[in-house]
Design goal:
By secondary structure, the protein is of the alpha/beta class. Helices cover 37% and strands 15% of the residues. Strands 3-2-1-4-5-7-6 form a seven-stranded mixed sheet. Strand 1 (87-91), helix 4 (97-104) and strand 2 form a beta-alpha-beta unit. The radius of gyration is 31 Å and the shape is globular.
């Protein structure tokens, strides 16, 4: 038996484990794939997170998102009466802070915003402030928004955005709006509408803490 075992061991394939595989040094470490996957996740997150803010430059009127200051919000909402049934819409609501503050004052409010991430953040912020029942948001192009059910239409304009302001005027003047509705512009006035009230604060931050209130019915009559 021992002779047979000796013969078998002589012809047995040697155990390769003691000998290094010449290709082992070319294999990437096991943790490498996790690093690659992590980098891909980060890059994808940055692309999808930043893209909605970058693509603003390719829109018809590239107005960047600039958060409203507390004073600007106060100036806008002091002209909104929180009576029963009152409704407010913010055209280009950004992170939702105007809509949320209006809702906190008891005004049923809606934000129109084309940036999906800002809409999601607005819903989160509304939940944190406990106003999800009366503050809503819609991801929509403001040119397609129906304004017929709102008492107050809020708009934050932009510098050197005359064409944008004129198109806003055309939309307001030609589309159905609620009787007695007011248009409240903050930072910059409209192009041709005549304000029934204005509050300009030259001492405000870069002169932007100003507000103009327009009577929509009056402006519609001028177009007839």
């Amino acid at each position: 038996d021992s002779m047979i075992e000796s013969i078998e061991s002589a012809f047995k394939e040697p155990d390769p484990s003691p000998y290094p595989n010449p290709t082992d040094h070319n294999k990437p470490p096991a943790w490498g794939k996790y690093v690659v996957a992590g980098c891909a996740t980060v890059v994808s997150g940055l692309v999808f997170g930043v893209l909605p803010f970058v693509t603003v430059a390719f829109r018809r009127h590239p107005l960047p998102f600039v958060p409203a200051t507390p004073k600007q919000i106060h100036m806008v909402l002091r002209h909104c009466k929180p009576t029963a049934g009152t409704r407010l819409v913010d055209m280009g609501s950004g992170d939702g802070r105007v809509v949320i503050e209006a809702a906190r004052k008891g005004i049923r409010s809606k934000g129109i915003e084309i940036n999906q991430w800002l809409v999601l953040y607005s819903y989160y912020s509304a939940w944190r402030n406990g106003v999800t029942g009366i503050a809503t948001f819609s991801r929509k192009n403001l040119w397609k928004a129906d304004l017929s059910e709102f008492d107050y239409v809020v708009l934050f304009g932009g510098k050197d955005a005359t064409n944008f302001m004129e198109e806003v005027e055309d939309k307001i003047a030609t589309e159905p709006t609620k009787e007695g509705a007011k248009l409240i512009a903050c930072r910059f006035p409209l192009a041709t509408f005549t304000a029934e009230f204005e509050e300009v604060d030259p001492m405000g931050e870069k002169g932007l803490e100003s507000v103009w209130v327009y009577d929509i019915d009056t402006e519609k009559m001028k177009r007839k």
